[in-house]
Amino acid sequence: MAPSKVVLASPRGYCAGVDRAVDTVERALDHFGPPVYVRREIVHNRHVVSELTGRGAVFVETEEDVPPGAVLVLSAHGVAPEVHRRSAQRNLQVLDATCPLVTKVHAEARRFAARGYTIVLVGHAGHEEVIGTMGEAPQAIRLVESIADVEVLDVPDPERVAYITQTTLSVDETVEIIAALRRRYPAAIGPKRDDICYATQNRQNAVKRLATVVDLVLVIGSQNSSNSNRLVEVTRELGVPAHLIDDERDIDPAWLEGVETVGITSGASAPETLVDGVIAHFRKLGVEHVEAQHAEPEDVHFTLPTELRRAVGS
Fold first, then answer.
1. pLDDT digits 0-9 by tens, 204-230
2. Residue partners of 223: CB distance under 8 A and separation at least 6
3. In this structure, are residues 11 and 267 in contact, taking their beta carbons and an 8 Å threshold?
4. Is the CB of residue 219 less than 8 Å from the CB of residue 244?
5. Beta-sheet pairing, 141-144 with 242-245
6. Which CATH number is correct for 5-14+197-292, 3.40.1010.20, 3.40.50.300, 3.40.228.10, 3.40.50.10860?
7. 234-237, long-range: CB < 8 A, 24+ apart
8. Looking at the annotation, which residues are catalytic?
9. Region 148-177: what's the mean pLDDT?
10. DSSP string, the chain
11. Is the pLDDT score of 1 beyond 90?
12. What is the pTM of this model?
């Protein structure tokens, strides 16, 4: 049983930070030659990691797994300061591919800590971005994942509370958590600009529009991709079935029973080639009508890491 139509969300897929991170590894391989070491997954997508591995990238859990003097790329999610210290001790040539929007959150953490604030970080425990951010001011930061966590917070001075957030959260849920925090600590202050990244916001807005015209949404992204999982959650909260898939092979035919229109979107770390594969799958099923929603194009671009530009320029 084939749907009659496929609708593509717009925008979808790679954000500027992911594009920069993947480009960093590719250009490092071109310039230095393999192996180029990468701390953890450069972005949370298994297809991207597999492709880069095939080109000679070596993914490691920690900088201590890298031979002294080798080239090490830090992932888009950011790292704690101690990672930079240990890398320097091993004389590693570090190319920092941390997304500039994550770097902004790190700077906010340092600034609030220096001013004596208890910092409430809204995020998911164990996520690499959260681990890196907490490393900037471990004594000052308290992690909350929900309104319930806010209700049991214990801070030394209720008049000196600041908040920051992980960049890939659900926009609506984060607003509710921050509202709860402000109710409990009316003096709480936050960053001048929202920490949730533009791409996360845009893709959540796009999937909300998509959910109004389809019967099912397929989100292309890996299981460990925070922003991809949030797209599934946002869609389901609107009452529309949604599933996270790595590629077309994950599509369960049972999902399509009674479905006339399928919506497709992709997380910020999923390359467009995966979308093409899913479209090709539906065309094989007999779907002829594929359309894309209209949206203003994203024009955000980040320059490559300074260390790489210097190396390539030399």
1. 999 999 999 999 999 999 999 999 999
2. 229, 244, 246
3. no
4. yes
5. unpaired
6. 3.40.1010.20
7. 234/170, 234/172, 234/204, 234/207, 234/208, 235/207, 235/208, 235/210, 235/211, 237/172
8. 129
9. 97
10. ---SEEEE-SS-S--HHHHHHHHHHHHHHHHH-S-EEEES-SSS-HHHHHHHHHHTEEEESSGGGSPTT-EEEEPTT---HHHHHHHHHTT-EEEE---HHHHHHHHHHHHHHHTTPEEEEES-TT-HHHHHHHTTSTTTEEEE-SHHHHHT---S-TTSEEEEE-TTS-HHHHHHHHHHHHHH-TT-B--SS-SS-HHHHHHHHHHHHHHTT-SEEEEE--TT-HHHHHHHHHHHHTT--EEEESSGGG--GGGGTT-SEEEEEE-TT--HHHHHHHHHHHHHTT--EEEE---PPP----PPPHHHHHHHH-
11. no
12. 0.95
Joined together, the tokens standing for residue 11 give 């925008």
Domain boundaries, the chain: 5-14+197-292, 16-98+302-313, 101-184
Q: Residue 164, Cβ neighbours under 10 Å: how many? A: 24
Q: Which amino acid is at 9?
A: A
